[in-house]
Amino acid sequence: xxxxxxxxxxxxxxxxxxxxxxxxxxxxxxxxxxxxxxxxxxxxxxxxxxxxxxxxxxxxxxxxxxxxxxxxxxxxxxxxxxxxxxxxxxxxxxxxxxxxxxxxxxxxxxxxxxxxxxxxxxxxxxxxxxxxxxxxxxxxxxxxxxxxxxxxxxxxxxxxxxxxxxxxxxxxxxxxxxxxxxxxxxxxxxxxxxxxxxxxxxxxxxxxxxxxxxxxxxxxxxxxxxxxxxxxxxxxxxxxxxxxxxxxxxxxxxxxxxxxxxxxxxxxxxxxxxxxxxxxxxxxxxxxxxxxxxxxxxxxxxxx
Length: 304
What we know:
about 300 residues; alpha/beta; TIM Barrel; 2 domains; 8-stranded parallel barrel; 11 helices; 10 strands; about 45% helix
């Protein structure tokens, strides 16, 4: 596939919380339509036993076609490229027309190019985006090139999702509170994603009963630069949304900065005084994103 270098222009929308739902669990799919989550991931991979893959595939297509997810973004996660289920999974996912398809265990940019070509050959609905999971040492080494494929519009790449469980399994890194052994990997992936103009989500937190530990991990992920987090249980939604929602004082400050830069006397100036401190135009860019996210969250809450 010949690269088509175009700017990545992803609409700003909240992806604070994306909840995994097992493909075979019909009741979970019904419940997902009522939860205050930003996105629902109907899963065909880890949560589905090998003997249940086909049934899960059928159920996910049915759930997607039934709709009813409202403002929630709908994702379908397939099995990996090297599994016997991928081809049928991907075909079914394209036919179901979700907002995005997630492919796990991506390790090279070439894999994304192959997926993009497949979507092109299938004449997949143009609104369907591609998200991929970074879950191996090879993927970490290649993540800059993987993310950069987003500049080729035919790949449809819109985001990365970290899979720390698989990373820990492969590298034998201990999953300790604070995740210090993995922080350098996070930095590399976050820089790669945002340099390419795409989003990146943090991995799941396994102990859904540990509310305090989960809240700490959400706050750390937000401060580190993740755009949101993937979840395994509805009990995690509230804390996750709270962590990734800009606080009221931050929104007020952002609006004040934008208002100040919009004044006639600020035209042509690179630095102005706002609220007793000097603010540069780059801060206005940051404020513009904060306000856009806040407005999108408010709009989504009204639609839910």
